[in-house]
Amino acid sequence: MQTPAVQPQYNSAVTKSNALIEANYKLSTIEQKIILYIISQIRKDDADFKMYKLPIQEFSELLGYRGSPKYTELREITKNLMRKVLEIREGQKLKQLSWVSYVEYDEHSGYVSLAFDPRLKPYLLQLKREFTTYRLKNVMELKSSYSIRMYELLKRWQYMGEIVIRLDDLRMMVGAGDKYSEYHNFKKRVLNPARKEISEKTDIMFTYEEIREKRKVAAIRFQIREKAVEPAVVALEEKKEAQADDRYLQFLAVVQAYDRYITEQQFTKIAVLAQKAFGGNWMDELIQTARRIMQRNDIREPIAFLTYFLNEKVQRIQAGIDPNEVTIHSHGGARFVRREIVPDWLRGYEEQLAAESAKSKEVDEDIEQMRRELEERLKKYKD
Q: What's the pLDDT tens digit per position in 334-368?
């Protein structure tokens, strides 16, 4: 099993399947940070788990130790971590898994290496849909294990702006279990401290409302919003790169909410067009436009449609033409316009029809059927 040498990078991304985000488990603050640190070392194209390294000195400092690493204490922490179980519910199935299957200390190199349980692969490797991504730095400063779990859950639903979670489910997901059976204790020990700490130290903030059934609090409605956070003081180029990565992750969250996926390369192309098309407020405009497109049932390839739309908009701006209206044709001096651009897939369909028709002077039944389908689809864009 390959062991990559990786230095601490708190600006790395943590990506977990939503099933793992909403799993039930109880980890201490340091155990969560260890797990999230090594998750951040997983690359999106990794086909299998590796042995993931954590510097022993860094590990020791995470625990608040100063001076030489205290191996006895560190070994106890990893032994306990190997015993911890998480539960994932999928339909009628309840899966119980361990986080870590193997730990190796190398005092000579100064690293401790950890291996994930292989059964976690579907929840951490090559995720294309139903996943959540956030920056590791947003959780490394949190002091409470409840705050870390609450942050993850809220990031999972950030694209919605709000989410209602049953109180019993919330207790299990954040790892409180039956510890605070009385709601007022749960509110005092978990909800309010998490709200304060998340607001002060991460990129989001939240408020909440209590939903009562027969006078008892049965569920919590969370309202989630993004908070402007100044990037860490880094070199200018690193700062720009971090901002670009954050924008990609922000846009990815929007896309994945509609069961879609976009690569960083695709986003880079779209981002360049959006800046030319929308100007200074381009990111907000891009997200609003993307959401409108994703919500349409008649657009088969929304990412291609978005790219084509932005490209057309930029070309019209550069030509000094109103980008919100596209002329289809003129007849007898009348000017007909459409306010939606025919997507790439429809144009390709039209070209396919022309190519097939050129093969023969006789139009067979298949070509005739294609022509009728094309006419029906074009009507939507010419009305």
A: 444 444 444 444 455 445 545 555 554 444 555 55
CA distance 229 to 308: 33
Q: What does the alpha-carbon distance between residue 310 and residue 298 come to, in Å, rounded to a whole number?
A: 19
CA distance 30 to 143: 9
Eight-class DSSP state of 360: -
The more confident residue out of 107 and 3 is 107
- Polymer length of the chain: 383
The conformation of residue 343, written as its DSSP 8-state character, comes to: P
- Cβ-count burial 221-230 (b if 16+ within 10 Å, e if not): ebebeeeeee
Query: E strands along 290-381, which residues?
Result: 326-331, 334-338
Q: Which of 339, 343, 261, 258 is nearest to 307 (CA)?
A: 343
**Which of helix, strand or coil describes residue 231?**
coil
Contact partners, residue 106, CB within 8 Å, separation at least 6: 112, 113
Residue in 260, 195, 186, 193 with CA at minimum distance from that of residue 224: 195
> CB atoms < 10 A from the CB of 198, how many?
25
Residue-wise pLDDT for 193-228, tens only, equals 999 999 999 989 999 999 999 889 999 999 998 876
Q: What is the pLDDT of residues 88-105, one digit of tens each?
A: 988 889 999 999 999 998
Report the predicted TM-score, pTM, of the whole model to 2 decimal places: 0.63
Span 275-316, pLDDT tens digits: 888 887 888 888 888 888 888 877 878 888 888 888 888 887
- C-alpha torsion angle, residues 331, 332, 333, 337 (rounded to 10): -30
- Report, in angstroms and rounded to the nearest whole number, the Rg of the chain calculated over CA atoms: 26
Q: Which residues contact 33 (CB under 8 A, 6 or more apart)?
A: 62, 139, 140, 148
Sheet holding 100-106, edge to edge: 52-55, 111-116, 100-106
